[in-house]
């Protein structure tokens, strides 16, 4: 037999969990949106540490 009444603590905990879940969902949506915008623009995805073969210093 389970508990019949919900304690006030459970209601507060649910409210906090709902708030954290909404903030997490908003963060994921923002990161996903920024990723889509960056890939749709076709910007160069190459990192700064990469050097093209023509630009390498061959005098070493």
Overview features:
60 residues; 0% strand; mainly alpha; single chain
Description:
57% of the residues lie in helices and 0% in strands. With 60 residues, the chain is mostly helical. The protein is rod-shaped and about 75 Å long. The N and C termini lie far apart (79 Å).
In DSSP terms (H or I, runs of 4 or more residues), the helix count works out at 1
Percent of residues in helices: 55-70%
Largest sheet: none
Radius of gyration from the CA trace? 25 Å
What is the average of the pLDDT values? 78
Q: Whole-Å distance between the termini?
A: 79 Å
Return residue spans where pLDDT drops below 50 for at least 5 consecutive residues.
none
Secondary structure layout plus pairing:
Blueprint: H1 8-41
Structure described in brief:
By secondary structure, the protein is mainly alpha-helical.
